[in-house]
Amino acid sequence: MTEVPFNNLKRRYDTYKNVYDEAVLNVLQSGWYVLGKEGETFENLFSRYIHVPYVRGVGSGTDALMLALRALDIGTGDEVITSACTATPTVAAIVGVGAIPVFADIDESTYTIDSQSVRTVITNRTKAIMPIHLFGYPADMTSLQSIAQEYDLSLIEDCAQAHGAKVNGERVGTIGDIGAFSFYPTKNLGAFGDAGAVVTSSNDIAKRIQQLRNYGEVRKYENIESGFNSRLDEVQAAYLSVGIKFLDEWNARREEIARLYHDGLKNTPLVLPAVSEGGRERVWHLYVVQAEARDALAKHLQDRGVGTSVHYPMPVSAQAAYAHLGYTAQELPVTYGSMEKFLSLPLFPELTNEEVQYVIENIIDFYEK
Ligand SMILES: *Cc1c(COP(=O)(O)O)cnc(C)c1O
């Protein structure tokens, strides 16, 4: 039987084995493993790629968000507006600094935070808005920027799923006050373990992040505030410096696959993901459709060897960990309504056209029965 995996990182390693092996081995042989020249090299490469003055490598995407909040002095009792249609770490980071997550609803076609809904949940405790460029689609930064200005709020972009996406020609991460990236292995740019980065145009914020990621040290053994241990290690940095050279190529291949899905699935009852529009230039992290009889379709595909996934099975507000926040489907109708139909199809650069075709045929087959 044909087997189409939902993802397969081994294909990536096999393709680039020589360069990856060399990069990692060099670090092992160097005898220097944390906060060194590999980290700086990657920070410089990423800063050039994103077109942002300051990049600080950190331990993960979740840490990047937490350190961003801390760097803006957002903490106990402060409210941060975000969406419940996201990976739970977006919300865990807010809770992690002692702040209160406040959920606004999402736009029904891009699944990013709805700026009209944001306006309705602003209070005098609101300190920041944290939009997610979900599945690679940039949030409506133009509207969010004017809201942030109007109410004097900070804007922290969760860029974990959108390496390379742009708004009016500028890369996401550079539009708000701070951008937080994850390099979890399956992201568009991935490490071979946990890694993340904070990007900013502010020298002050960059300095704060640099302190916070390293115990709060301003100089060795001189702590001016309490911090974390969240450093991008030299091995992950060297691995990422290899990957970043291929990021545009990988994103282009993801786009090709998305086009194949679009053409192949346009006559099915599926609601297909939004394409770039109005200055919002997306990348493809996940190919998420809305499907009637979603679970039956997933089962049908699984029986034919096709791996699918659901991002995410429920709104973050419906998770046991966040139930106490007290949100209901009535308050967030678009979030709850769309998510129960979400299904993610296989989308990674090493997928072959034949495999994509096989997925399409089996979806068509399901709806014709
Ligand atoms: C992956 C992800 C994160 C967390 O990144 P980690 O590196 O796993 O900590 C945060 N937000 C979103 C939207 C993500 O997809």
Percent range of helical residues: 25-40%
* Helix and strand run: HHEHEHEHEHEEEEEHEEHHEEHHEH
What's the arrangement of strands in the largest beta sheet? Answer: 1-9-8-5-4-2-3
Number of strands: 14
Class per helix and strand makeup: alpha/beta
Beta percentage is 5-15%
Rg for CA atoms? 21 Å
In DSSP terms (H or I, runs of 4 or more residues), the helix count works out at 12
Small molecules (ligands, ions, cofactors) in the structure: pyridoxal-5'-phosphate
Tell me, briefly, the overall form.
globular
What is the distance, rounded to the nearest whole angstrom, between the alpha carbons of the first and last residues?
21 Å
Uncertain runs with pLDDT below 50, 5 residues or more? none
Largest sheet: number of strands, sense, barrel closure: 7 strands, mixed
Quick description:
This protein has 369 residues and is of the alpha/beta class.
Write the layout of secondary structure elements.
Blueprint: H1 9-30, H2 37-50, E1 54-58, H3 61-71, E2 79-83, H4 88-96, E3 100-104, H5 115-121, E4 126-129, H6 141-151, E5 154-158, E6 166-167, E7 170-171, E8 178-182, E9 196-200, H7 203-212, E10 217-219, E11 222-223, H8 234-243, H9 247-265, E12 280-281, E13 287-290, H10 294-303, H11 333-339, E14 342-345, H12 353-368
Parallel strand pairs: 2-3, 2-4, 4-5, 5-8
Antiparallel strand pairs: 1-9, 6-7, 6-12, 8-9, 10-11, 13-14
Helix pairs in contact: 1-8, 2-8, 3-4, 3-7, 9-12
This protein binds pyridoxal-5'-phosphate (PLP).
Pyridoxal-5'-phosphate binds next to α3 and α4.
Characterization of this structure:
There is one protein chain. Helix 6 links the parallel strand 4 and strand 5. The chain starts with 8 loop residues before the first helix and ends with a helix. The protein has 369 residues and is α/β, with parallel strands linked by helices. It contains 12 helices and 14 strands. The strands form 4 sheets. Strands 1-9-8-5-4-2-3 form a 7-stranded mixed sheet, sandwiched between helices. Strands 7-6-12 form a 3-stranded antiparallel sheet, with no helix packed on it. A two-stranded antiparallel sheet has the order 10-11. The radius of gyration is 21 Å and the shape is globular. 40% of the residues lie in helices and 14% in strands. The mean pLDDT is 97. The structure holds pyridoxal-5'-phosphate. The site of pyridoxal-5'-phosphate has 15 residues, from helix 3 and helix 4.
